[in-house]
Amino acid sequence: MKFLHLADLHLDSPLRAQAARNPEMGEALRDASRRVLSAIVERAIEHRVDAVLLAGDTFDSGVADVAARAALAAAVSRLAGAGIPAVLIQGNHDAMLDLGRFGPMAGLTQLTPEAPSVEIGEAVVHGMGFTTPHMRESLLPRYPAPVAGKFNIGLMHSSLDGSPGHDPYAPCALGDLLAHGYDYWALGHIHKRSEHRGERSLAVMPGIPQGRSVRETEGGSVTLVELDLDGVRATPLPVELLRFARLPVALDGCEDASARLHAIRTALGATMAPGVLLAARLDLVGSASEIGDLGFATEQARQEAAELDGVFIEKVRAQLRQGAQPDGAAGDIAQAMRADAATPGFRDEARVLLADWRSALPRDIADLLDEDQLDALIDEGVETMVLRLGAGSET
Which of 57, 123, 46, 49 is nearest to 86 (CA)? Predict the structure, then answer.
């Protein structure tokens, strides 16, 4: 038997932060976030799977917009036309969503605590989604026992043992999961792909099919699952239409604008892939003179991207190469700034400011200022000031 396993589509994610940073990139990302569902349907039909399993957070909120609902309905209808049923559970983002608000979707089965299992050919799929946005206890004790003589698949949205950058929702010890007796666990919630194999069981976190920001550079795939008497196998299938990437650009010896542009062009060209748009965050690494004015370097990068088909510049940052710190008084000031930024008092004040900014911003933009980003934000700010000192610019 074959299944296609995916999670964390976040179909109606507003993407306002990305659009604010680069409107053209934001529009391309919004389009990719919708069209990736069609790409997934094509993979399912191409591989003639027996079912498609959606492990939560299909939508980004409990009040999905009409266009996102229509996109899912069209995908389910197309799958049903090919004889492929879809099975879905709800995650923490879409826990409160009423999937039946616009009528039933033929070919779609939603698993719930009241109806946690569905039989598909030689397999039984078990699962239950979130009933509230914050589920702090493990759902595993409520999952049915495996059905003898059948392949058993578990569909679960969970943070497992925990992962940096993800809240501990429906936590579950990985060892307990693998010992439950199912052949395969189709997981969701963590946006980075991972596989965990037990003695007779395999658990897979498929990753986000389409990344939404530079914080989601891994994933971009769904998982093809094959079960037979030889066991269970999982193969990632790429589906992303726009890829985010962090690119270090070494500027050693680049003493003029032409050399800097060549280094940027080379880095972008080496990262491009056929058929996939690229949204790049560039880290320019060099001395103050090699990096030059950051605003000018940013504009160089954007103009170069405009010459390349399907490339966007998400952001350009500067990073002084080790040993390339400013001399004299500028160096003394830079050292004092770094020392001050490392003190608990500085970070406490910055944390308060960050909380104030977050409370005044829409949720999707505020998420870019998570407290776990505090150190990175401070470091970036300090390095930008040090760069200006080294270049003799106004600060």
Answer: 49
Place of tokens 């698993």: 111
Tell me how crowded residue 141 is: count the other CB atoms within 10 A of its CB: 9
CB 155 within 8 A of CB 116: no
In sequence order, which ranges of the chain are alpha helices (DSSP H)?
16-21, 23-46, 66-81, 174-178, 257-271, 288-291, 294-307, 328-341, 344-359, 363-366, 374-391
**Concatenated DSSP letters of 262-321:** HHHHHHHHHH-BTTBEEEEEEEEEE-HHHH--HHHHHHHHHHHHHHSTTEEEEEEEEEEP
pLDDT in tens, 236-270: 999 999 999 999 999 999 889 999 999 999 999 99
Could you give the 3-state DSSP secondary structure of residue 151? strand
Token pair recorded at residue 234? 């999982």
For 89, list phi and psi in degrees, rounded to 5: -125, 160
Please give the model's pTM, rounded to 2 decimal places. Answer: 0.81
Full strand arrangement of the beta sheet holding 117-120: 117-120, 123-127, 151-157, 184-188, 202-205, 194-197
Q: Which of the two residues, 126 and 64, has the higher pLDDT score? A: 126
Length of the chain equals 395
| Domain assignments of the chain as residue spans, ordered by start | 2-238, 242-324, 331-395
| Domain 2-238 architecture | 4-Layer Sandwich (3.60)
DSSP string, 196-213: EE-SS-EEEE---SS--S
User: Mind listing the pLDDT tens digit for each residue in 141-168?
Assistant: 999 999 999 999 999 999 998 665 556 7
